[in-house]
Design a protein that fits this description.
heterotetramer; A mainly alpha; B mainly alpha; C mainly alpha; D mainly alpha; A: mainly alpha; 4 helices; C: mainly alpha; Four Helix Bundle (Hemerythrin (Met), subunit A); elongated
Chain lengths: ~100, ~250, ~200, ~250
Amino acid sequence: MAATTGTTEKTETTARTLGWAWVVLVVITVASWRLAPAHFTDTVVASTGVTALVLVLTYIKARVILRYFMEVRSSPRWLRIGTEVWLIVLLGAVFGIYLA
Amino acid sequence: MSPVRALTPDGYVTTADGRPAGKPDVRIMTWFFPLWYGLFGIIICLLARVTPPPRPDVSTADKVAFFSQNGLTIQLGFVVLLVLLGGAAMTNGLVAYQMKRMSTGSVLAYGYLAGMSVGALPGFLLVGVCFLTATLRPDRDPELIGLLYDLGMLSYNASLGCFTAAYLVLAIAVLYDRNNIFPKWFAYISVWQIVTEVIASQMVVFYSGPFAWNGSISFWVAVVVFSVWLGALIVILRNAAAAEPADEPDMD
Amino acid sequence: MGKVTVQQPDTETVAVPDGRLPGDVHMWVMVLGDLIVFSSYFLIYLIYRSMDPESFLRAQQHLDINIGSINTVVLLTSSLFVARSVLSARAGAHRQAIGFVYAAGGCGVLFMVLKGYEWAAKISAGHTNSDMFFSFYYVITGVHLVHVLIGLIVLGVVVRELQNPGRRRTWMVETGATYWHMVDLLWVIIFGLLYVMR
Amino acid sequence: MQILERVQDLPNAGNIKAQWVCLWSGPAVGLVLLIAAAAFPGFWPPMSPTLPAEEVARFYAEHTAWIRFGQVTFNLCGILVVPFFMVIVVQMKRMRGQSHVFAYCYLTAVVSGATFFALSNVFFLVAAFRPDRSPDLIQLLNDLAWIVFIAPIGMLLSQFVLLALAVRFDNGPDPVFPPWVGWYSLATGVAIVPSAAAAVFQTGPLAWDGLLSFWVRNGALAAFVVVMFFVLRRAVLRQAIADGVVAG
């Protein structure tokens, strides 16, 4: 629980950090918008590359929401590790099933 | 404490040092709660054959075959359950009793009691009666056997509203309660139960796949959530009974 | 066998020290459990998708990516408002905090309206739940919509808390915010798996 | 019962009056139900489960009017027995040596049991609604009606067990019900248990027209209501005296 002095400053949530988090999330959303199958009028083919990219982007977005909006980065260790493990296991399993 | 005594109501609801805690009558009902659900679970899984559910996507001939192959265990299981069914009222009455002790008072407790007592008919009685009627005359018109199969399974699995109402009032009561009878997180778990009931509405549409009455989402995920909910409730009821002062007066 | 008494966090500090749980631990039980339940839906969706990827992909093409993206931005923005509201509440600027919560709730309502329009458009275009992809689409977004609705009630509770000068407990605001962010988090994953992945 | 003039408008008196009305609704409703049972052709003798479908259909065609009368009356008045059982709930809540948990469990069981009873009338009435339906369908409705009527005794059984427990726990110097009521209640419970098997057997004492499933079961239930009328009458009177509502 005890934080070393100095890190307290770094993990303080400010309006500015929240604003940047939001910008990152919106930029990624707009980027994913370009990737979506609905953009193509002719038949789209499955693409492992695109799917992998989408999962990586989803991972980043989910992590930003968890760490900055939900303040998990300054929360107890069990929660930081728990949410990280959950996210990696979920998206890893998604990719695994996709490839299988 | 001797192992035999640990299995009695007085050995089940105890203080930390093993003395019987709370009120003796509440101890009995609290002790009965897991006992009844255990029996119920064993019978519906091993004898009555409704859990895991038989498939919705089978032909009429298959449904007739299902009843003729499992006729004996279905009859045995459901007759025993018709006798034991009152246990459902006893377990739900116990939850209503604990809800009445909350600072939210009677109104939500009565709502729980009403929702659950109405739910016994669509949620359980009908499937028992349908399956017993089907096995009573296996030589009946196969179409009618098929009808009883569907009627029983759909009412058993998709009796949504009674339980949704009960879970909702339970969640509200726990969230507003200031007497800390049940922990707050249990209210949130009850909300999941509502979500699984909402998803179970899809059972009336699908013959197969994840949303059919034997589907991975509408049935199996719901079973896991229900088991977690029930397991938590068993522990919580025991703690609530043990924490109740033996001389606490009853509210009217 | 005493009851578990939950330590409510000290509310008056503006800076968040390391190792502090934002909001109520009971709400975190809900959030983590909900993430696991939803994960099971996602994985079952993927299993069915991998059995018939072509038809899932064809059906995905019929989704309205514009509305999906706009809704994502709407929900992300509402999350930002809720997060700002927590900051304001910590700083004691309760009027500002209430304003942020209202803004977030407005975004939530907008999300539901857009979702309703999207559903109506899909159904009238003949994409009913007789298609496997669309049955997942309706159930998963439908359950998510129920979460948004509950979230609006939660935000209402937060507003009442902030309006009452005798209350204004920061941990209550944080608890509500935690729930709302979870709704956002789930949507981001739904967006990736249903709308974008190929 | 003569309520004292000076307490006429007090809540205690209202409580006693309401219980008194519900108590007396018991014999009144019981009488109507007896008439309905006497008028229902399916009870004299109880229809045999071994009847072939054609004969079941003919039975409904020949006795349509009386079947309708009997079951409509059951439907209307069957649930009217519930207020009588509510007097038992109220008296259980007065018992000492226990919390209200038995009373609430009893209440839940009464409500569930009443819904079961209501369902069986509907099946009888639908069968009689169009007796020219295919005989197989009439037989199906008849089977459902009889099984729902006779077999689901779980809710009743739990009521008898709960009442027995409550009486056993009532340890005050002046118990609400005399101790024998608990044993009598248990005995009634034992008497009705075998009728659950009516959903399986088509002949013998366990079939729904059999000695155990029909006559013993329904006889024990009727006797219980009669006995409880007198037990409750005594209990409510004694409550009235204790509350100062009537002269002691």
